[in-house]
UniProtKB/TrEMBL annotation, chains A, B:
Annotated stretches, region: Disordered: 1-21
Protein name: NADP-dependent oxidoreductase
Superkingdom assignment: Bacteria
GO molecular function terms listed in the Swiss-Prot or TrEMBL record: oxidoreductase activity, acting on the CH-CH group of donors, NAD or NADP as acceptor
PANTHER family in UniProt: PROSTAGLANDIN REDUCTASE, PROSTAGLANDIN REDUCTASE 1
Keywords from the UniProt entry: Oxidoreductase
Span of domain Enoyl reductase (ER): 19-329
Amino acid sequence: MTRSFSAVRQVRRPQGEPRREDFEFVTEPLTGPGDGQVLVENIYLSVDPYMRELMDSGDWAKGAGLEGRALGRVIESKAAALPIGTIVFHRHGWCTHAVLGEADVRVVTPVDGVPLSAFLGVLGGTGLTAYVGLTRVARLQPGEDLFVSAAAGAVGSAAGQIARLLHAGRVIGSAGSAAKVEHLTTRLGFDAAFDHRDGPIRASLAKAAPEGIDVYFDNVGGDHLAAAIDVLRQHGRIAWCGAVAQYNNLDDPPAAPHNLFVIVGKAIRLEGFLVRDHGDAREEFERFLVPHVRSGRITVDETVADGFPTIVDAFLGMLRGENIGRTLVRVTPE
Amino acid sequence: MTRSFSAVRQVRRPQGEPRREDFEFVTEPLTGPGDGQVLVENIYLSVDPYMRELMDSGDWAKGAGLEGRALGRVIESKAAALPIGTIVFHRHGWCTHAVLGEADVRVVTPVDGVPLSAFLGVLGGTGLTAYVGLTRVARLQPGEDLFVSAAAGAVGSAAGQIARLLHAGRVIGSAGSAAKVEHLTTRLGFDAAFDHRDGPIRASLAKAAPEGIDVYFDNVGGDHLAAAIDVLRQHGRIAWCGAVAQYNNLDDPPAAPHNLFVIVGKAIRLEGFLVRDHGDAREEFERFLVPHVRSGRITVDETVADGFPTIVDAFLGMLRGENIGRTLVRVTPE
C-alpha cells in the first residue's frame, strides 16, 4: 500500500500581496522513517508574517517546501529517544506529515490544563522571546516602566503581559489600529496604549508616559526607537527583538534614529537579541509561565483555522491583518 | 596683609577657533577657608577639548570661572578630613588657588614611582573611563579583538594599552594623522592602525581587521560606528564613551549609522556610558593599573607647560592639535 501526505508548495514569487494562485496543494508519497528518524503527524501549524519575506528571498525555489513552525505527534519511530506518541516541535510546516531526524525536533511535554496550541505561541518561541528580552536583555526590575511597540503582535502582547507578571510599573503599548489599542488596555492589561498612526510617535509616547520609561521592548526600530530614546530615563535599556528572517532580507531597513547619540549622555544600553541564543532559558521560562497560562492570567490570543486545506487562506488572512493574535491551523485533533 | 591669587576669565564667546583675546588673566583677593573648607594651591591643571564646547554654552557668563580638572595641595584647612599637605583632585581649574568644600574634592594618594601628573591622566578619569568601558561595559575577554576610535586621544590611548594588559587579541586603532597612526603602532603597542582620513572607514577597518572584531570602543560615533557595526562579529559589544559636556551642547551630533538594524541580527550590545556612574570602580582600577604605570608598561603621553601664565597658549595649542597626549600646566612644583 502506498501512503501519501499533503503539502503546500510555492509555485511563483508573489507580486506584492500574495494570492492563492501563488501556491498549490500537492499529494506526495509518504515514506517511512529511516534509522534515527520518526514519522510525525502534524497537529498544529503556525502561519507567520516572516514567511512573506522568505517567499521573496534568494533561497526561494519553485516547488520547495515552505518554512513553518509546527507541533506534531510521532506515529512511527526508528529513534529510541522519540517513542510513538511523543509530541514534538519542528520547523517543517505547511504539510500534514513529515519524516524528521532527532536533531530536527524538540520534544514538548504537554501540561494538564494548558492547550497544546500554546506551545506554538505564548509557551513557544514567541513567549520565550518576550521573556528573555525582558529578563535577560533589558533586565526589567519590579516597578520599572515599560514601552512595547507592535504590542498587539504575538511577541508584543506576550511582552506586555509577562512584564505585568514580573511586577513592572506602567506598561505602555503601541499598535496600528484603534481596535488593537482597545484590545491592549481592555483585555491584555496594558496601562496605556496608542495608535502609532494617530500622530508623531514621540508626542504620543510622551503623553502616555509623561514621567518617562525605563525599558523599551523594540519590535520595529525606526521612529519608535527614536521616540523611546527621547523618553527613556537615565540608564534606560532597549531590548531590540529580531526574527532573523525579518532582517536578513531587508531592502528597506528601518531608518536609524536621528538622536542615537543621546544614548551616551543617558548611559542607555541598546541590545539586539535573537531567541535562538537563549534556548537554555526555556526550562526557567516554562516553570515561570505555565502556572499563569493555566490560571488564565495570560490571555492567549489565537485564531485557529480548522483543517489543512484552510492553510493558504489562513495565511492570506493573517497578512491582511484580519486576526488578532497568532494564526494557527489545526491539522488533526489534539 | 591681603593675599591674592591668579585666574583666567573668559571675556567673550570665541568666534570659531578661540584666540588669546577671548581670555584675560586676573588677580583677585584670596580669602581663607571657612568651616569645613580648605585652601588649595594648584599643582597641575589640565586643558581639554571639551572646554571649547563649554565656552559656547548657554551657561556661559562673561567673567565666570572656567571649568577645569586640577590637582592641588591643601595649604590651609578647616576640614578635619583634609589636613594640610593632602593632595586633592578638583574641578575648579584655570587658577592658582581655590577655596573648596569637602564635597568639591577627592583625596589622591600619591604612589612612589608614579608621577603625580598621572592622576590627571591615565590614573585619573581618563584611564578610569577606558578601564570601565573595557571591563564593565564591553566586558572584553582575553583573546578578543578590539577596535578603538580616536585612539591617539587621551581615552583612546589608555583604552588600547589597557586592553593589551587585559590580554586582548588584536588591538586596532584609528587616528587623524599619519604621525598619530605611527605613534599607535610604534609606541603604544597597537597591532594595527589607520588614518581615518585616508579613505572610507569601513574599508580601512575591514583591511585592518580582516577577521572581524569583538569589541568597539567608540569615542566618536558617526561613520566609525557604522563601520564597526559592519565588522563586528556575532555578539559583539560597543562601549560608546561620552563626556557629558561633549554631547549636551551638540548642534551637530554625529549621524546615526545607516546600518543600525544590523545589531539585531548580530545580537550586538551598544551601550553608552559616563565615567561618573562608575566611581566605585576607582579602587579596583588603581590596584590594577598602578603597577603597570610604575613599571613603564603604560606609556603616559603628556605635554607639560610650565607656569600658570602659559595656560591660555597651552589650551590654544592643544586645540590646534600641536601635542600628543594630554596637555597639562604645571603651576608649582610637586
